[in-house]
Design brief:
By secondary structure, this protein is mostly helical. It is built from 17 helices and two strands. The chain has a two-stranded antiparallel ribbon with strand order 1-2.
């Protein structure tokens, strides 16, 4: 946060931003990889990975509160939020490229989705864990986990400077079903348009929830069948079959989730509270360094966000029907911030002091440490897999932004 945002100009009109979240991720990764650093190793990476599950809730709570504050604007642009989900089909443009690069049936797993956790489940369930399709989706998952977040941050900053779309469209496009990539894509946009930061956070948060809830059906019923058809048509023409994804990738991503099968306990609540207290202190100090916000107000804002996170995580474990904590956190955050609610003014006053950039910067420090243990796996995938992953991310981001901007224009919102 002390380094701040570095604006690198490519031309007079085109530039991209280097953000604190990128420095944080790189430094966290370096701490793991530098052999002379003895206090960061596999054990600490495992702990960091487990903490990330809780901290994703913090990101979601912040975005949900922004959504509540801008609920009227969300209703006005509702059609654009829904239709931009069709932009997820933009991942399919990676399929012919992957074939030209030498992949075979792996391309179905690689190009049918953004390849996050729900999509992994779909592919593994349909084709089997040892299948080439599963190896493909796992490869993109690993790449996305390691470099997807900084890549989409740079992509967002470049696109917003060269493509004349409305900021609302880019905010909606950032909701691709990954909390970390969602926030990373949003941060450059908020930095460029601070006057509408709350609305941008609201649209991004709602878009990400929709992608999480409906994206799985988009994959099952639309993108995956299309990917299979495209492979059948294009593989005889473009397929070379000389690329290989090592079977070393055939480990399911260990999300290191705090196991919810054992329900809720007082000890678990204490661990969550302790971790979130520490994280809140980190964010409060970082916020002061980067934005000179009042320490007490920022800390109270983080406490509100942390309480929403803990309540949402707890409800997932005690509710008789399994509903992901992401849903509870989003609903609670939205409700307490809706104008007219007794809590709205208090929540808006304190949480508005907490910058999304600071939360992301602190969060990605943990991400950098946790992905260090996957570095060897990442190197095995090779440069061709990285190219495909970049196209997958770019395709879904630009596809969603294009549809959202067109819908906003047609409906008279811009």
């Amino acid at each position: 946060m002390a380094i701040g945002v570095i604006n690198i100009k490519i031309t007079d009109t085109i530039s991209f931003l280097l953000l604190p979240l990128i420095y944080s991720l790189v430094m966290g990764l370096a701490l793991y990889l530098i052999k002379s650093v003895k206090f960061i190793g596999p054990k600490q990476a495992k702990v960091a990975e487990g903490v990330m599950v809780l901290l994703i809730g913090v990101l979601l709570a912040k975005l949900a509160i922004s959504s509540g504050q801008s609920i009227s604007a969300i209703f006005k642009v509702g059609p654009a939020l829904l239709l931009q989900l069709l932009g997820d089909l933009g991942t399919l443009i990676a399929l012919p490229v992957a074939l030209l690069l030498g992949f075979r049936r792996e391309v179905i797993g690689m190009a049918s989705s953004i390849c996050r956790e729900p999509n992994l489940g779909i592919i593994i369930d349909k084709y089997g864990f040892k299948s080439p399709e599963a190896r493909g989706v796992l490869a993109i998952f690993v790449i996305g986990s390691i470099i997807g977040t900084p890549f989409i941050s740079l992509l967002s900053s470049i696109c917003t400077s060269i493509i004349p779309f409305h900021p609302y469209a880019f905010a909606m496009a950032s909701g691709i079903g990954s909390a970390s990539m969602n926030a990373a894509a949003l941060v450059p946009l908020v930095h460029m348009h601070p006057e509408i930061a709350t609305q941008l956070e609201a649209f991004a948060g709602c878009s990400n929830i929709l992608s999480f809830c409906l994206g799985i059906y988009m994959c099952i019923f639309i993108s995956l069948p299309i990917a299979e058809k495209l492979y059948k048509w294009l593989s005889p023409i473009l397929g070379k079959g000389d690329a290989h994804i090592d079977d070393g990738n055939d480990h399911a991503p260990d999300a290191a989730k705090d196991d919810d099968s054992d329900g809720l306990s007082l000890g678990k609540l204490r661990r969550w509270a302790t971790l979130l207290l520490a994280f809140s202190v980190i964010v409060t100090v970082g916020n002061f360094v980067g934005y000179h916000t009042p320490l007490i107000d920022t800390f109270i804002g983080m406490m509100i966000i942390s309480i929403v996170t803990i309540v949402g995580m707890a409800l997932e474990r005690v509710f008789p029907i399994h509903i992901p904590s992401i849903v509870f956190i989003s609903i609670i955050g939205l409700l307490i911030a809706i104008p007219g609610m007794p809590t709205a003014d208090l929540v808006a006053h304190y949480v508005s002091n907490v910058e999304l950039t600071t939360i992301c910067t602190a969060f990605l420090g943990y991400v950098g440490i946790s992905i260090g243990k996957d570095w060897e796996e990442f190197k095995k995938i090779g440069w061709r897999g990285i190219i495909v992953a970049f196209i997958v991310i770019t395709g879904t981001y630009l596809g969603s932004a294009t549809i959202a901007n067109l819908t906003l224009f047609v409906t008279g919102m811009i």
